[in-house]
Amino acid sequence: MSIYKRGNVYWYKFMWNGELIRESTKQGNDRKARNMESAHRTALANGLVGIREKKPVPSLADFLKSDFVPFVQTKHVVKPATVEYYTDGAKMIQKCDWSAQPLDRITDQHAQHFAAKFASLSASRINCGLRTLRRALNLAFEWGKLERPTKITLAKGERQRDRVLTDGEWQQYIAECPQPWRDAATVIRGTGMRPGEVFSLRWENLYLNGSGGLIQITEGKTKAAKRMLPMVPSVYAALKCRHETSGKPESGWVFPSSAAEGHFNKDTAKDQHAKALAKANEKAGKANARKLVSFQPYVLRHTALTQLAQAGCDAFTLARIAGHSSITITQRYIHPQADAIERAFAPLALPPVKESIAEHESQVGTKLGTTENEQKSDGLDVVGAKGGTRTPTVLPARS
């Protein structure tokens, strides 16, 4: 008998008259699974059942349309960005001719054809489709539509958010940011919050007092995203000024907008971010100063989390601040700089042992003398009777 576990369910497989029989028991108990396999073998031997026909495998395009996209829309109903990501990836895949092939014929070679077809796009955009393909095939395997998982290789060269702004770059940048992006960027940089969390802040979730305050995040990607964060002076000053300018409201959006969401969104943020970079570099060019290297708004969050880590914040506390459900995710946001690595080695920089040249030479001479004396010894001490095996008790000195 041959049973194996796929996920939480046992399957069995065996050969019968040259045909492979493979079935899911839909059971999580191995004893029941073995009994079901035995019953199937017995039924075949008695002629009660014939060889069961293999279920037809749907095409990739049909699986994406009928199974994958509806699953994503249901599972990630509170994560519109995730739904949009996988939906866009599915649309890109469906534009390929090979999407009409059955799922079990899709290989990594098709993934490379996909990357070649969309070579004019960025690596991040190409990987959107490839990650969608990988996720869809993994689900097909989990749901029993594929007998084995398929490995999908992602495109190289994807831009990583590992940039960390210096204090000088931050001051040069924020001075040219228009409102409301200036205040939003200040909050991101001062708290490490996700841009989307800042854009959707409401006054009823802010607690302002005479010298500081708290920010409560009530929604997010996971349960860990719900958290309370303190306001540093720069964040408090920005939000306090905005609160007073807005007439001290008790409810409503902190960053209201005429957009469909009702509040400031990522599209407007990208536009204002690009204008700030252009203006800052224009001023730098006129003053013969160093220009800012382009970066994404999300780098502000990375900068905040990285500087917290460099200040001594442990990984578990940092994960709580960032709203991560696992410190494994937090590690993606931590980018130690060269000076931080150098400081980490400081405790190992022990002072050299104080030893004069004369002492060093005397020790070397003593060792050499010992070696010479050993070489001049009368011979090797041996044990054993005459005519028997003679075993030396010490090794000869090397010449």
Describe the structure.
The chain is mostly helical and 399 residues long. It has helices spanning 30-45, 60-75, 80-94, 108-117, 123-142, 167-174, 181-191, 195-199, 233-245, 266-286, 299-310, 315-322, 327-330, 338-344, 357-375; strands at 3-6, 9-16, 19-27, 206-208, 213-217, 227-230, 382-383, 391-392. The protein has three domains: 3-45, no CATH class; 60-142; 167-341, Intergrase catalytic core (hpI Integrase, Chain A), CATH 1.10.443.10. The protein has 15 helices and eight strands. The protein has a three-stranded antiparallel sheet with strand order 1-2-3, covered by helices on one side. A three-stranded antiparallel sheet has the order 4-5-6, with no helix packed on it. A two-stranded antiparallel sheet has the order 7-8. Helix 3 packs across helix 5, helix 7 packs antiparallel against helix 9 and helix 7 (181-191) packs parallel to helix 11. The longest helix has 21 residues, at 266-286. The radius of gyration is 34 Å and the shape is elongated.
